[in-house]
Design goal:
The complex is a heterodimer of chains A (286) and B (262). Chain A is mainly alpha-helical and 286 residues long. Chain A is 77% helix and 2% strand. Classes of the chains: A mainly alpha (286), B mainly alpha (262).
């Protein structure tokens, strides 16, 4: 009997095994391989040389250029996250609570950017923001400009906010939907002002949604590659653009790997600190 | 009360405009007769679409993207569906770990996955000269979506019908084919659609693992934007957006895309 059960269990693994092997072979092993690669020696004639060294990390952490690059990448990811939150909260709240018959259409409006490739959305922003783009043409009618709206961090941040905004709206919307609207009414009836309803009722209750939105947007924008590439047109460098340049342009695989891992570890550290502190404040509120 | 509602409505409307503006201007640029979108538009023209249709580079990238997307959708569902069944129906221990492993490709930064695969294919496997690395890369990152949609479809179906079929003498395969499959079909189709769209729009994996003969449409547009600058890219983008919207609308009409949740 026990034998028969063990046998069926084993046979059932046939269902899970292909997916597990796929993840093991093409995620786990390659990721471990990046770690190994980051300790490899540099070679002039090949992507890397045999033997191991710490040089790649000392070069990343010892060079002010890369440290400033890392700081800027993290700072603009943070700025993007804050801007996304500010724009997302009203939309998420409205979308969760609206009784409009266009709710489905509005939901599609939030989802539609997700269904449009990043390249195309960046292209849209280039048409809008470039030196002779639509925004500057419109400003010229008012006798203003032209302003430099792209090829710098302004344009890159605008596009980052645009591309990742849905990832903030959707989780917050889900947590607003879970709140009983009578709670706000009760707080209002009991004399709470609008701001204190927001601060003392809405914000704490939507914290789980905000938490996942913030983590998603921060991770995505810190590791964004195409957006700084297209809106920066070579004028804006971030860790991902430099990494890809090192890999595809200079074929410096070990150094590129070390730089990429430094960014990932920094992001992971910030995200887990944030997650732990928000979990603690969620517990305190509960 | 009314004032507060207006106060909410203004930023909300502004954000929707912000969200849709870039797509709107692309469509506008593609039917505008000028080289570059001038405001107000200078006139209607289909010449950018003709230029797209006559461009071998764009057309071959477009065909390649569609073929790749269909293959990715097929393989991602072929691998993701049984994994979801295994997770929901059979797995007893280490359930959280298995789920995490299945979702990991979706949670990891895509550029890092692309870099990892670039090293891996060049060092260990067959290099990146063929389209196979692209196919594998896309299947890895889209499989989690199939896993998610099929998992929720399985949770939403009553298990009693499967038991009834088994009691009435149907074998496991017949039970799956006649009972389980029709009930979770919408979940599989939704997952496959998402996989197609993710593959069709993918840049990071496609860019790092491409070679001369394996350029996809987004990469072709990207390269065009870095060197050339006429509105052919706008026509290509518009067609690409229309493609995705059409797929989504069609699937939504037939099955309903309720399972798309984050």
């Amino acid at each position: 009997m026990i034998m028969a059960k063990a046998k069926t269990n084993l046979r059932n693994w046939v269902f899970g095994l292909p997916a597990l092997l796929l993840v093991l072979l093409f995620i786990v092993v390659p990721y471990l391989n990046i770690v190994v690669m980051s300790f490899r020696n540099t070679s002039m004639s090949a992507p890397y040389a045999p033997g191991f060294t710490f040089d790649n990390y000392t070069r990343v952490l010892g060079d002010l250029y890369y440290l400033v690059l890392l700081r800027d990448t993290l700072f603009f990811a943070l700025l993007t996250t804050v801007l996304c939150f500010v724009l997302a909260f009203p939309v998420a709240f409205h979308l969760a609570r609206t009784k409009s018959r266009f709710q489905g259409l509005l939901y599609a409006g939030v989802l539609s950017p997700l269904l449009t490739g990043v390249v195309i959305r960046c292209f849209g922003w280039i048409v809008l923001l470039s030196n002779n783009g639509i925004v500057n043409q419109l400003l010229a009618y008012g006798g203003l400009g032209p302003y430099r709206l792209m090829y710098n961090h302004t344009g890159v941040t605008i596009a980052l906010v645009h591309v990742f905004l849905p990832f903030m709206i959707l989780p917050i919307m889900n947590s607003v939907q879970a709140i009983d609207p009578r709670l706000e009414e009760a707080a209002r009836t009991l004399g709470a002002s609008r701001t204190s309803v927001f601060r003392r009722v809405l914000l704490p209750l939507t914290l789980p949604g905000i938490q996942s939105g913030v983590i998603l947007v921060f991770v995505l924008s810190a590791s964004a590659y195409v957006i700084p590439l297209l809106l920066g047109q070579g004028q804006v460098q971030t860790v991902p653009t430099i990494v890809v340049q090192q890999l595809l342009g200079s074929f410096l695989w070990p150094f590129g790997a070390a730089l990429a891992l430094t960014l990932s570890v920094s992001v992971l550290f910030l995200v887990s600190t944030f997650a732990l502190s928000t979990i603690r404040s969620m517990r305190r509120l509960a | 009360m009314k004032l507060a509602r207006v106060g909410l409505l203004i930023p909300v409307t502004a954000t929707y405009v912000f969200l849709l503006m870039p797509i709107f201007v692309i469509v506008l640029a593609s039917i505008n007769s000028a080289e570059y979108l001038s405001f107000p538009p200078s006139g209607f023209s289909t010449k950018w679409y003709q230029s797209f249709l006559n461009s071998d580079q764009f057309m071959s990238a477009f065909r390649r993207s569609i073929l790749l997307g269909i293959s990715v959708a097929f393989f991602a569902s072929l691998i993701g569906t049984p994994a979801a069944m295994f997770y929901v129906r059979f797995l007893q221990r280490n359930r959280e770990q298995f789920r995490f492993a299945m979702l990991a490709p979706m949670l990891l930064p895509e550029v890092l996955t692309a870099i990892a695969l670039l090293f891996f294919f060049n060092q260990v496997l067959f290099g990146t000269e063929t389209i196979l690395p692209l196919l594998i890369g896309h299947v890895v990152i889209t499989m989690p979506f199939v896993f998610l949609t099929v998992t929720s479809a399985l949770y939403n179906m009553p298990t009693a019908v499967e038991e009834a079929a088994r009691t009435l003498g149907a074998g496991p395969w017949r039970t799956f084919r006649r009972i389980t499959f029709p009930l979770i079909k919408s979940g599989i189709i939704t997952g496959a659609t998402l996989a197609f769209i993710m593959s069709f729009d993918n840049v990071n994996i496609s860019l790092l693992l491409k070679s001369i003969g394996t350029v996809t449409l987004p990469i072709q547009i990207l390269q065009y934007l870095q060197y050339d600058f006429d509105a052919t890219a706008a026509a290509a983008s518009t067609i690409s957006v229309m493609m995705t919207m059409m797929v989504v609308l069609l699937i939504d009409r037939i099955y309903g895309l309720r399972a798309v949740r984050f």
